[in-house]
């Protein structure tokens, strides 16, 4: 995923954009200032957050 798109998704929390990390649906909580990582958590399951590389996120379109 591109940095600009990740920021757009975070800035529009009401949007229902599906984002996956390693094939699992996640919510992007925050894009970090370094521009290379984001904090995400699994959709619907718990609140554990993980820092991942933005390039490892994939927007799913149907």
From TrEMBL:
Judging by the UniProt lineage, the source's domain of life is Bacteria
Per the UniProt record, the source organism is Domibacillus mangrovi
- List UniProt keywords, sorted A-Z: Sporulation
Task: Check the record and name the Pfam families matching this protein.
Answer: SspH
Q: Where in the cell is it found?
A: Spore core
Mention one GO biological process in which this protein takes part, according to its record: asexual sporulation
Q: What is this protein called?
A: Small, acid-soluble spore protein, H family
Q: Which GO terms describe its cellular component?
A: endospore-forming forespore
Q: Which family does it belong to?
A: Belongs to the SspH family.
